[in-house]
Amino acid sequence: MSLHLQRELERLKKHLLSLCAVVEDHVHKAVRSLLDRDPRLADEVERGDDDVDRREIEVEEDCLKILALYQPVAIDLRTIVAVMKINNDLERIGDLAVNISRKAAAFIAEPAAEIPIDLELMWEKAQGMLRDSVNSLIDMKVELAKDVCRRDAEVDRMKHDNRKAIEDLICNNPALVRPLMRILAVSRNLERIADCATNIAEDVIYIVEGKIVRHHEE
Fold first, then answer.
1. In the chain, how many domains are there?
2. Which of 98, 181, 203, 213 has the fewest C-beta atoms lying within 10 Å of its C-beta?
3. Do the beta carbons of residue 109 and residue 38 sit within 8 Å?
4. Separation CA 15–CA 2 (nearest Å)
5. What is the pLDDT of residue 218?
6. What pTM value is reported for the model?
7. Does residue 215 sit within a domain?
8. Which residue in 179, 43, 23 sits closest to 87, CA to CA?
9. Is residue 216 included in any domain, yes or no?
10. Does residue 54 form part of some domain?
11. pLDDT at 217 over 70
12. Beta strands in the chain (DSSP E)
């Protein structure tokens, strides 16, 4: 690898890590806006989405520039391809944060209702997967990436349990159908964030081992 290419790849990873920090903060604010009934946080997420979109475009342009200037091969080429896919997943997480913030704002605006499921715990697990997936990229740790993939099943189970609990509540309390459906939507969005984190981890495995593990059991 040429010294210039190495520097460009390191700079690219820093930009990607910066984008990850922004989208992680947005999801955190979106969830907190719901749990703390704080519409200001929901509004911050909504207004910050343009920044996520701008950063995503910048990373993609950097990838295309590196491909054009250095024509990388082997692991360097896999890195660029994976970064472009990871970049898209991070932008998608930013969109999911906006979705959560909108559901939170609508939930807050209605008469006070209890949140019957542990969304904070679900976010903590999804957040941990997101952090570890990006750390596995920065440090090229395949085992950490594989661990993220394994943890996705736990978040899937939480989403399933949440849906069952909310469906039961709706049957017993039809008047609460609107607020409960908004809570269910937040649960689905958190599960999708965990899916995006899993996608990132699978791309790290691809970079290091050259194996496409998506849609396959380990």
1. 1
2. 181
3. no
4. 20
5. 47
6. 0.92
7. no
8. 23
9. no
10. yes
11. no
12. none
